[in-house]
């Protein structure tokens, strides 16, 4: 694959060993150590990446600081031009990057291609939006505030933060990397990418597309390695000016350790799907399948718990069961709906939640079945609040149904979660929908549709343990800049000197 293509310089001998990216070059680590990437389907080593050292991280951040200074002086239109070029290259090479996603994270082939194309579109949109946002400043005059004459003029503009550290998750290692990289670059920052282990090779390929676009050396780096060796070292590094992180619990630890720098964090979710008696049950069932089982439920914005009114619960459960029966299960290469979850430990965790629910009397709508990392889709009915699956995030194709008797009960269960990422409501009554949305402690509420992150320019944020800061292209660009004010003081008018 990579060896015979434009990506040849990334890789060494078979089995493929990939280099890291520093100062515009592909390098081997001086550590001599490698990190194995296990194919979730075969459960065998698929690729290896460099285990970088702290000294290599230091060099990368120093180079990033130097490159950022001149990049900040690069005209905005030139920055945008390079981003458009990178977007085109990314889309052109979608096939080999998608192939990595299939092998590293068992993403179905068609979804893998979609992720790469969407990422290219995000980079292009970001270039355009950046030119619009950053091309404008603000002009203030002093006499608008009581007691002041018009003797001061204030010019404000947005300037870059410096070095942005981007840490994307395994489930969208390309898309959630570019959603951090593109806003950082258009705003005049440099970027250090620390990809997840599963997904690192797809991320390295994506970085190579930026390399081919001709960005200045040192401006973009990609450092691979073990979190235990370089994780804290990176997130606590004094040279880092901003951290954008998407993932799980690690984000809470990072937020406690990081210094006084802007943090953008999207963590887990337990997204509730509330279905009222007047809801369109066919629409709800279709969205539960899409929302709960797409990419085997390994999405922060997946439907994670169904809160359904008792009077319509039996009907809905039957509709969902019929659709679950049609889901195809197998390898990602065959474009199956349900593919292996990312690691054996993930599969074991999901199984633990299922066994807890079984022991406590949940109704299994399908037989629980697992082969290796492959778990068959499972709907659990009559789940009660004392079951772990009611609160914990499985990140797999297992979906609990809690039967409720009132809107208040639905809101209470949704808000009792320590998460608050997204939620959804199915009802034909827009007044009820808005009132419930207002009462839900979540960053986004979808009405009559499953939770979703996109479109990528919509604001995207979580409350409580689901994160801090807001994402979406526009919000990310604003967050990766700071306000600079320049005040012009005029001489005191002669009439004021008497």
TrEMBL record:
The protein's matches in PROSITE patterns, at most eight in alphabetical order, are given as: ALDEHYDE_DEHYDR_CYS (PS00070), ALDEHYDE_DEHYDR_GLU (PS00687)
Give the catalytic activity: D-glyceraldehyde 3-phosphate + NADP(+) + H2O = (2R)-3-phosphoglycerate + NADPH + 2 H(+)
Source species, domain of life: Eukaryota
Tell me where it resides: Cytoplasm
Domain (Aldehyde dehydrogenase) ranges: 26-485
> What are the annotated GO cellular component locations?
cytoplasm
Tagged with keyword NADP: yes
Database matches in Pfam families: Aldedh
Q: Does the keyword Ligase apply?
A: no
Q: Which UniProt keywords apply?
A: Cytoplasm, NADP, Oxidoreductase
Enzyme Commission identifier(s): 1.2.1.9
Where's the active site on this chain?
Answer: 266
Q: Which Gene3D superfamilies match?
A: Aldehyde Dehydrogenase, Chain A, domain 1, Aldehyde Dehydrogenase, Chain A, domain 2
- Enzyme class per UniProt: oxidoreductase
InterPro entries assigned to the protein according to its UniProt record, in alphabetical order: Ald_DH/histidinol_DH (IPR016161), Ald_DH_C (IPR016163), Ald_DH_CS_CYS (IPR016160), Ald_DH_CS_GLU (IPR029510), Ald_DH_N (IPR016162), Aldehyde_DH_dom (IPR015590), ALDH-related_metabolic_enz (IPR051020)
Q: What molecular functions are annotated in GO for this chain? A: glyceraldehyde-3-phosphate dehydrogenase (NADP+) (non-phosphorylating) activity; lactaldehyde dehydrogenase (NAD+) activity
Coiled coil residues, start to end: none
- Say where the protein is mainly found: cytoplasm
The text of the family note is:
Belongs to the aldehyde dehydrogenase family.
Report the protein name in the record.
Answer: NADP-dependent glyceraldehyde-3-phosphate dehydrogenase
UniProt source species: Populus euphratica (Euphrates poplar)
The lineage, from the top, is: Eukaryota, Viridiplantae, Streptophyta, Embryophyta, Tracheophyta
């Amino acid at each position: 694959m990579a060896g015979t293509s434009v990506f040849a310089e990334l890789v060494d001998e078979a089995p493929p060993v990939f280099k890291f990216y520093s100062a515009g070059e592909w390098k081997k680590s001086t550590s001599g150590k490698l990190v194995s990437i296990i194919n979730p389907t075969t459960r065998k080593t698929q690729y290896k990446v460099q285990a970088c050292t702290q000294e290599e991280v230091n060099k990368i951040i120093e180079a990033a600081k130097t490159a950022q200074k001149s990049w900040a002086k690069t005209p905005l239109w030139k920055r945008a031009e390079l981003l458009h070029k990178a977007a085109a290259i990314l889309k052109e090479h979608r096939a080999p990057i998608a192939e990595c996603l299939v092998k590293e994270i068992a993403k179905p082939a068609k979804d893998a291609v979609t992720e790469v194309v969407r990422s290219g579109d995000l980079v292009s949109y970001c270039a355009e939006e950046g030119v619009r946002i950053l091309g404008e400043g603000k002009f203030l005059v002093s006499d608008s505030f009581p007691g002041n004459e018009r003797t001061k003029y204030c010019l404000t503009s947005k300037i870059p933060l410096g070095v942005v550290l981007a840490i994307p998750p395994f489930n969208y290692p390309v898309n959630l990397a570019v959603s951090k990289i593109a806003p950082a670059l258009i705003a005049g920052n440099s970027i250090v990418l620390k990809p997840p282990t599963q997904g690192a090779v797809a991320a390295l390929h994506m970085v190579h597309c930026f390399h081919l676009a001709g960005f200045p050396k040192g401006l973009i780096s990609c450092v691979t390695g073990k979190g235990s060796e370089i994780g804290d070292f990176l997130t606590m590094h004094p040279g880092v000016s901003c951290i954008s992180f998407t993932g799980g619990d690690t984000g809470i630890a990072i937020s406690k350790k990081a210094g006084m720098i802007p943090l953008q964090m999207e963590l887990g979710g337990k997204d509730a799907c509330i279905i009222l008696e007047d809801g369109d049950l066919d629409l709800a069932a279709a969205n539960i399948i899409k929302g709960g089982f797409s990419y085997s439920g390994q999405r922060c914005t997946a439907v994670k718990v169904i809160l359904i009114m008792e009077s319509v619960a039996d009907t809905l459960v039957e509709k969902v069961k019929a659709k679950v029966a049609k889901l195809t299960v197998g390898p990602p290469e065959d474009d199956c709906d349900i593919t292996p979850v990312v690691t054996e430990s993930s599969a074991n965790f999901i199984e633990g939640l299922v066994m807890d629910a079984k022991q406590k009397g949940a109704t299994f709508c399908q037989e629980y079945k697992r082969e290796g990392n492959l778990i068959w889709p499972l709907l659990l009915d009559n789940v009660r609040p004392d079951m772990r699956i009611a609160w914990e995030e499985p990140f797999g194709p297992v979906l609990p149904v809690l039967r409720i008797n009132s809107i208040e009960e639905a809101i209470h269960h949704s808000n009792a979660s320590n998460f608050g990422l997204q939620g959804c409501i199915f009802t034909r009554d827009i007044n009820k929908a808005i009132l419930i949305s207002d009462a839900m402690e979540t960053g986004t509420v979808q009405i009559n549709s499953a939770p979703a992150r996109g479109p990528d320019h919509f604001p995207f944020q979580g409350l409580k343990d689901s994160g801090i800061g807001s994402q979406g292209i526009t919000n990310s660009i604003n967050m990766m800049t700071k306000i600079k004010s320049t005040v012009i003081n005029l001489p005191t008018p002669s009439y004021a000197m008497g």
